[in-house]
Amino acid sequence: MIPQEIFKSLCRSTDSKIVLLVLDGLGDIAAEGRTPLEAAATPNLDRLAREGTLGLSDPISPGITPGSGPAHISLFGYEPIKYQIGRGVLEASGIDFQLEPGDVAARGNFATADGEGRITDRRAGRISTEENQRLITALRSEIDEIEGVKVILETVKEHRFVVVFRGEGLDGRLAETDPQALGVKSLEPRPLAPEAERASAVVKAFISRAVEVLAPEKQANSFLLRGFATPPDLPPMSELFRLRPAALAAYPMYRGLARLVGMRILPTEETPAGSFAALASQWGENDFYFVHVKKTDSSGEDGDYASKLKVIEEVDRALPAVLELKPEVLVVTGDHSTPCRLKGHSWHPNPFLLYSANVLRDETTAFSERQCVRGGLGRFPAVEAMPLMLAHALKLDKFGA
Amino acid sequence: MIPQEIFKSLCRSTDSKIVLLVLDGLGDIAAEGRTPLEAAATPNLDRLAREGTLGLSDPISPGITPGSGPAHISLFGYEPIKYQIGRGVLEASGIDFQLEPGDVAARGNFATADGEGRITDRRAGRISTEENQRLITALRSEIDEIEGVKVILETVKEHRFVVVFRGEGLDGRLAETDPQALGVKSLEPRPLAPEAERASAVVKAFISRAVEVLAPEKQANSFLLRGFATPPDLPPMSELFRLRPAALAAYPMYRGLARLVGMRILPTEETPAGSFAALASQWGENDFYFVHVKKTDSSGEDGDYASKLKVIEEVDRALPAVLELKPEVLVVTGDHSTPCRLKGHSWHPNPFLLYSANVLRDETTAFSERQCVRGGLGRFPAVEAMPLMLAHALKLDKFGA
Prior knowledge:
homodimer; alpha/beta; Alkaline Phosphatase, subunit A; Alpha-Beta Plaits; eight-stranded mixed sheet; six-stranded antiparallel sheet
């Protein structure tokens, strides 16, 4: 990718519209036989492949399996190594919590400790979400502020919660307090950089106050904090690419990621048909629409080939609703692969389809991993997807004279 | 490739095993007709191509012809520009001499000089190896140490020898003493950096002592030194990749290169069948095995098409012995191409075959340069081979959340 400052100078605002449809975890491997994308009946996607162009994109670089954060950030045109997103920030995004610049967020686990503070259960017996809510309410009523820093607590699910410290001069470079072992005390939130000393002192004071509040509890009388992080300083897409971007994502983590790059969050539904209808009903004000379909990924995580195939067919059936909007550019791709065989994210490159009147057509005839191998876009890092989308939407000026 | 520190944090030690089989100089061009790899009968490699995936790797970057050092170093996962290996170091490796950190090694040529020290033969009439050994013995008995620096002399072959300076505060940035012309005196080993002044003085003193010792000789009364170098500070593979690597290489230079990255050196034989048998008999303790076959390269250097084809067929016939070991990942590739037409190393990319249960199969049906063009791995820098091997062996954690 060319240097950000030069790229920025080439971007121009136009009326043309881009749709980036991310089928999360789309790519698969199917060592023998066909992948879900190959086996699914996808007449619409196949037509787009014939009239558009295909390729394979590496989320980060060959062999590297990305988390959802870096996988999406690179699709949005941000170098995933330069802009790293900490776990605490992602967890807060995952419950739609709107972080502010300078916040320090961490993931929390309620835990059980013995009389001497030694951890006996790192998940407090996986207490119910309702129990978690009761504890968070109790903590909130007792702790509001520590040394002038606002403390915000939010239930996630079961034993998991998020804590956000909001105040001046905080730095998220703190060591986790989880000893990752039983029979030992939780660790101190040590500063990992001199700038994080104040944050360390605040978190330490918070922990000791909170443990007092939890003292009467049987199961959840302690907790562990991990993944301290400050929201990355991501220049918004409006500034970097001169776009007016919007996101339709039914899952909070993806809304959170979209929010981090300055997208407007639009209401949507979980099904492909529902989200495409939501796109159609809100079409017009923005010029970049990120539409996220989660279920390809969750099917892959479950190793459920049939379900993954079915979601792809659902997307295909519903796709005419998107095509009727006549976006100047439509990209259909994954953020990372989630092969059913591996039941998790993988390093395999993403099938990538780009449909636009300005495309150099290739000889591919269907949208599949193997046809993408011989697609006209070749194999490229996912961070190049943004220049490709902007170019095909005629939103980029010439470089040099 | 992602930054080394991040990559390092993703590596994990597992029981899965990787075999990297390097057929030195494998790639060829055969402008008309077929390359040796295309013409050879290789049923086993072709099956692996069908069940695995192919690609093309550039040893350094397009158009750059590498020496054996950078070509192997990049296959081992080290940036070849960052970790340069001087000629003196390679020459020492080539005779199995074990360099220590801080040593300065150089290649030496015995030469003939006239009464006024002007070089009249830069190779001393290509004296025999026995003659060389006699001269080295004479020099050793007279020169052991210069200014507290140990001087170690080793015969290589014919007129060639290696000299190693071992002591405190030496720096290998010295100009060669070879004037690359006849009728002129040899040059001074000038320091090319201020830090190399001590080394320069030591080498200068060594040269004048050695020339005194050689004065009675008729042919080899002088010598020229080239390629002064210090062993590069290569972090071992165990540290960078959490591997327990081993090498089976019949030629000393490749053992030397393997040693530089911390591989354990296992006894082996020169033929493909012999080296695969050696691999089988020592299988188990390590999780990364580099197996080197030299004769593809030497056949290419000789322009001997038939011999190159025959070696490839020998490898293919013997390959079942490797497959029976069931490594989780098997890569078959070259370090660089050595086209018979060019009789030397070239810049052409390496045919690359990756076989693993976790592969995204492509549509290729045989292992050949031209099928590699349309392989699923695309075209990539050879330094990415290591992330790809580690990923397919499930030895890499996810990057980011």
